[in-house]
Structures are given as C-alpha cells and as structure tokens.
Design a protein that fits this description.
Layout (H helix, E strand, L loop, with lengths): L3 H13 L4 H8 L4 H4 L4 H18 L5 H8 L3 H10 L29 E10 L5 E9 L5 E7 L4 H15 L4 E4 L3 H4 L1 H9 L3 E4 L9 H15 L7 H17 L11 H19 L1
Parallel strand pairs: 1-4, 4-5
Antiparallel strand pairs: 1-2, 2-3
Helix pairs in contact: 5-6
Length: about 280
Amino acid sequence: MSSPVGRRRVLRRAMDRGVSARRACQLLGFSRRVACYGLRQPVKDEPRVAELVATSQQYPRFGYRRMAWWLRWSQTRVRRLWSQQGLQLPRRRSRKRRLGTDVRVPGAPVPNSVWTYDFVHDRLADKTALKLLCVLDEHTRECLAIEVARSMSSITVINTLARLMRLHGKPAHIRSDQGAEFTAGVVMRWLRDQNVGPVFIAPGKPWQNGFVESFNGKLRDECLSREWFRDLREARILIERWRHFYNHQRPHSALAYRTPAAVRQEWLNGTMLTANLTA
C-alpha cells in the first residue's frame, strides 16, 4: 500500500463497498489527490504499447531483451510494458536432458576456421518431404547457406560446399555428425583433396555440435513453424529470405546483440587495417 498503485487499489476497494471518496481518504490517511488524480503514463505508453505488440507478433520468438535492442528502447521500459501486456514467448516442448560429460572439441578462433553443417527436415502443404542442408561459420554464427530440396545425396553436399568455398574461402575444419551423407567415401575424399579436416561428433551427442543445433531450433521456431509452403519454389524463397534476415538484421545475444554479418565485417576491417599497417 506504500506505492501509488497500491493506494489507488485500496481506495477503490473501499469505494466499491459504498464509502465515499472523501470519507475513504480520511479513514485511510490518503490525500484527496489519490482519488481524483488522472494517470498520465498510460496515455504516453499507448503508442509504445501498440508498436511493441505489433513487433512481438511479427517476431514471436524475440524475448524482451532482444526486443529492447530491436526497438532501441531501454530494457526497463520494455520489461514493464511486456509484463503489463502479458507478453511471453510461446512454450517449447520439453526436451530430454542429456547425461554424461562434455567433450571439448576445437573451437573457431577466427572466421572460416571451422564450419558446421547439419540437416533439417520439414514438409510442404501437400505432405511432400523437404530436406534442408544448413551450413554455418562457428565464429561469426553466420548461416552461409540453406540448401532446400526434396532429397539430397553426398554429391549435393559436395556441390554446396564447393560453391561456398568459392565465395568465402576454404575452412580449416568442418564439423558434423556421422550421418551417411557426411561420412560417405566420396565426401571424405573430396574434403581430403581440398585440405579440409572433417571433425565428427560422438554418436548420440548433438550438444557437441551446439552451434548448428541452436541454429536449427531458431530456424524451426521463426521460419518453418510459421510458414505454410505450397511448393518447393516458395519454400526456397521464404527460407532464403529468413536466412538473409538472420544474417543481416536479427540481433544475436552471444554476439553482444550484433548481427553475424556485422561480426564478419568487423573482422574483415580489422584484417585490412592490420595489413595496411604492416605494409
């Protein structure tokens, strides 16, 4: 009852029981202004609330911290309005907890040092199966490609990697699980010829490939679960549009709310500056 909101709540309860506002203020020791004061903050918050609700509907997987960065508001304001409007992230299904200890595998100190890739499965509106090959740079968290097809073979994996290496250069290592498309002899020979070392995680331990598993969850929550693909062409366009959004617009909490593309650009600028200083 020490806060203005608490005093108004108690006064309202007294008035609901038939006590006049003046008498209630006398009995409770409140100023008469408590009964007649009109709140100004709700009027100021109306346009903010409308913008916050609209943005949360557009990006339903954003929490209030990422939403504050996106709207360029203070976290305090967003948290207050977030709580008032009852906004919250949709509940995820419970996941099995892993057992055992972590196995440390080499990390990615710079861009293009370690890539990681994995498959994600989905369906079109007519129940036709879709297979997505996702390739990421572990240092920048940048999604280099999402290859979408009804089915994929080892040759598709090689062609995708060859195209990305022409665009970004060759990584030192590439991490994956031990799926048939990744451990096939033709893929192993091609990686050996490219001087790229494959790094396989232990069977049944997806947390050893945590970067791509985290990305797969975001792809599922923010794109695949929200879209209704009528055909393969539409699926490729919408998924590629989301990939561009993920790389260039979506803030990443692990990157201090920067985008993966911004992290890569900062590294390129630093490399160019170092090269100019040493020249």
